[in-house]
Amino acid sequence: MTDGAVHLEAIDLDQLAAKLGMPIYAYSSAAIVESYRSFATAVGEDVSICFAVKANGNLTILTQLAKLGCGMDIVSGGELERALAAGVSPLRIIFSGVGKTREEITQALDAGIHQFNVESASELDLIADVATGRSVRAPVALRVNPDVDALTHDKISTGRKGDKFGIDLDHAYELYARAAATASLNPVGLAVHIGSQIMDLEPYRRAYTRIAKLAQQLRAGGYPVRRLDLGGGLGISYGHATPPSLDSYASVIRDTVGGLCAELAVEPGRRLIGEAGILLAQVLHIKPTHDADIVVIDAAMNDLARPALYGSLHPVTMLRPRPGPARPCRIVGPVCESADAFGLYTHLPALLPGDRIAFLYAGAYGAAMASTYNARPLVPEVLVDGSRYAIIRRRQTVAEMMALEADPRWRDMKLSDRSDLGAISA
Ligand SMILES: Cc1ncc(COP(=O)(O)O)c(C=O)c1O
Questions:
Q1: Is 70 among the catalytic positions?
Q2: Hey, is 224 helix, strand or coil?
Q3: Of the CATH numbers 3.20.20.10, 3.40.710.10, 1.10.580.10, 1.50.10.20, which one belongs to the domain with range 26-274?
């Protein structure tokens, strides 16, 4: 733009931040549509896309994706409620996750979801038990741990032997046979998800090849394997690396499982929403040190946890870029933890209190992972569409946070008193 201002679609972000206050998440509606359409075009209409709600569960974003034809991958009863509230058909919902409770399984069976991705023998038994009690057959796929290193951050690797996710490849056949012999279960296929922010396609190739082999063995044994859920995990650039192209990812799918005549699904999260969102923040204080300025901003690890959790570095831009020699700075938040640091930046001019900045690529695992640590309210989210914007989550108030707390009515509370049990969720 000629005035040097940074825009999201046609909105001047500096003006938006000044008007709405900070910290605040902003998303581009056009970018969401574009990333969904590119993904759908690359994998083809035979592959059903189920957005991983955990990456960003905002209702407006889920609704927008649902309207584009996207299904959802959920990992909790709360995410199920969100997906249904966003208008997603239960027939497009897959329930993943390693620790589903009896209540969540009941909720999902009653909703009539498409598929449970089962992660252990114990969970399979629990689903069978709940389904028996409700006189239904639960559609189950076994999520297999293929023992493949996704070559990503240790804390988002999920497909290595010993990781808590999935059923050991060696036990999957036997467990599938058990599911097939259980009246209340309908084994529909296999699932795999080896991790997140994956930048190399070879681990996918290895994992999918192992799943394909298992599917063939099961079929040879007389067990129908109609569906294959290939998980999510495809990485994005974060400004410093080139992620695999969607077309090359689609080729891996075709090469490995394309010939199996199975219904295919994928569960991307980050790749659909990561690049569409940014976090806007304001500089509060500058503390010069021997090697870099410490720049204290009003956003913190509770608003954007990825740097503290994984050492991730989100590119930063000033909303009104200013010429000047670059001055190294460490951007930190106000939370009382040394982990509340966004990283070292060497490309920015000397920042000043009042400067407004944006962390880029913050659409996935940003607002979704936010907490209220240090009694900091959850920050607002804004959706931009051309020159319009809408607040799609307003700023939480401290009063709302405190409203969940209550005086301990010691004299009233006894384990034998049933009337108090309901108070936990009331
Ligand atoms: C089961 C499952 N599916 C899909 C995803 C989405 O991963 P990503 O956002 O990296 O695509 C995750 C997140 O790790 C997951 O646990």
A1: no
A2: coil
A3: 3.20.20.10
